[in-house]
Amino acid sequence: MGNHTFTSGNFTRSVSAVKRAALEGPVFITEWGRPAFALLKIDDYYRMAGKSTTPLLKVMDGIPGGEGIDFDPPKLGIRVQAKSLD
What we know:
Largest sheet: 3 strands, mixed
Shape: flat
Structural class: alpha+beta
CATH superfamily of the domain at 4-54: YefM-like domain
Number of strands: 3
Order of helices and strands: EHHEEHH
CATH topology of the domain at 4-54: YefM-like fold
Number of helices: 4
Distance between the termini: 50 Å
Strand order of the largest sheet: 1-2-3
């Protein structure tokens, strides 16, 4: 597990490279030569913060007393159309 350091300017110019580097370990972003931010994978953050990565619906399924409840939300009726840029 390595860590990488990028200046804030390099971060702005190379976001995809920074994201690839974060797959290997923490990425430190510097401003004026000093560490200012740290970027890491969300699973690593959850592990460090002691938070669960279990999906909410799975947690809700485990709550006693919820069996047999039907949930059928209404359709929103949103329509998406391509916008002409002419």
